[in-house]
Amino acid sequence: MLIAKVILAAGQSSRFKGCKLIANVGFGQTMVERAVKTLQALDDSPVYVVTGAWHKEIEQALCGNTNIQLIENKQWDKGLGGSIATASEVVSKINNYDGFLFMLCDQVQLQTQHLSELVKGFTQTPSRWCADYGERLGVPAIFPAVDLSKLASLTSDKGAQHLLRSKNEVVNTINISHAKLDIDTQEQLSDFLSKHEL
Question: What is the per-residue pLDDT across 82-96, written as a single tens digit (0 to 9) for each?
Answer without folding.
Answer: 999 999 999 999 999
